[in-house]
Amino acid sequence: MTTAMPSEYQGFEQGPIRPPSEAYSLLIRVTRNCPWNRCLFCPVYKGAAFSVRPVDHVRRDIDLVHRLVEALRASADGAGHVRHAAYVAIARGTPPEERDALRAAYHWVAVGGMRSVFLQDANSLFARTGDLVAILEHLRARFPAIERITSYARAHTAARKSDQELRDLAAAGLNRVHIGMESGADAVLAFMKKGVTQAEHVAAGRKVKAAGMELSEYIMPGLGGRPLSEVHARESADALNRINPDFIRLRTLAIPANTPLYEEYEAGRFDKCTDVETVREIRLFIASLDGVSSVVASDHILNLIGELEGRLPEDQPAMFALLDRFLAMSPEDQTVFQIGRRMGAFASLDDLEHPDRRAIAENACRQYGITPENVGGVLDAIMRQFI
Ligand code: SF4
User: Distance between CA 307 and CA 320 in Å, rounded?
Assistant: First the structure.
């Protein structure tokens, strides 16, 4: 659903999410919510109407951030650092309607280093190419030192842009696109109402790369459930083998209660994989990647093995070793690791050997009676809190 845009400027806006890799980026909202909004597993924009913000409103956001960035930089100390005290002093003189922009500007200046910008929300490429080019040019005129401008895009939308349009966006400064492939298996994509096929994913990914932009593809381990786990792993790898994206990022399935998938799960129409089954699926997925030079990243808190990363093909053996190490553990140790990781006590498999951290996870298992038999239900509840 797309709504009519309010003609009046509503003030500086920030959308609800960004990719984990954009934690240090300035977020500039170009569109609101998601024009598709039907994926069964996705809770983010349900019930919220999609709209494209007028170019002039986005420009006003950029100009506001620019003015606030200049004020913050003018308050920098001799080493060029903007201290929190300076931010607080500026905030006192900033009208309430500009404080979100000031927070964004401060985070970008003091933490992010002002190198990257992420265009929100779920599918900025839905906007007219000429409008996006105007926004990109304005961003770069205001902040000439920006090194990277990125955006989410639906594959369906990217595939419908002409090669020239994608080249125009790249030339205007859009140098990385994040696409949520989630799965390359048509059966999984259809069940999840992703609204795109493997063929469209491959076409979109190739077009983005051919236009000279970096490409991040997101894969969701577990999305096929038990029945489609193997086909999900093999066909996702098959799609990626034909694209060779710059990044393959993993984000394990979780099923929050406010998603249509939760109803399917509760009704017994979706048979969820356990953590151990998901790790086996990831192993098959990595083994099925062939002929790609992508960087694999596991940079999401929902992933069990957070340190699973490296460049293909050379780091494939190390990735197997990590996955096999978990799979070879006793069910009791696997349970302790699953709980410790999701409680935040463990960042990596090595942390299992850390006596204090291990004690935190073991105590939790004892206190709440968590065993290899019931750990799945406990984890479902914990993981819902991360979404
Ligand atoms: S396209 Fe992306 S943002 Fe939109 S519903 Fe699907 S997963 Fe969510």
Answer: 12
CA 101 to ligand 1 center in whole angstroms? 26
**Model confidence pLDDT, tens digit, residues 159-174:** 999 999 999 999 999 9
Residue 387: the pLDDT is 58
**355 and 261 in a common domain:** no
Tokens, residue 309: 């990363």
Could you tell me if 347 and 307 lie in one domain?
no
CA of 39 to the centre of ligand 1 (A): 6
Same domain, 217 and 341: no
Residue nearest to atom 2 of ligand 1 (CA): 122
Report whether residue 122 contacts ligand 1, using a CB cutoff of 6 Å. yes
> Rounded distance, CA 124 to CA 164, Å?
17
Ranges of residues in the chain with a pLDDT under 50 are none
Closest CA to 87 of 97, 79, 73: 73
Distance (Å, whole) CA 150 – CA 173: 9
Q: Are residues 249 and 346 in the same domain?
A: no
Identify the bridge partners of residue 179 per DSSP, sorted by sequence position. Answer: 153, 217
Q: Which helix (H) or strand (E) segment is 116 a member of?
A: strand 116-120
Q: Which residues contact 356 (CB under 8 A, 6 or more apart)?
A: none
Question: For 339-364, how does the pLDDT look when each residue is reduced to its tens digit (9 = 90+)?
Answer: 999 888 999 999 999 999 999 999 99
Range of the domain at 375: 331-387
CATH of the domain at 309: 3.80.30.20
Does one domain contain both 215 and 339? Answer: no
**Which pLDDT value is given to residue 360?**
94
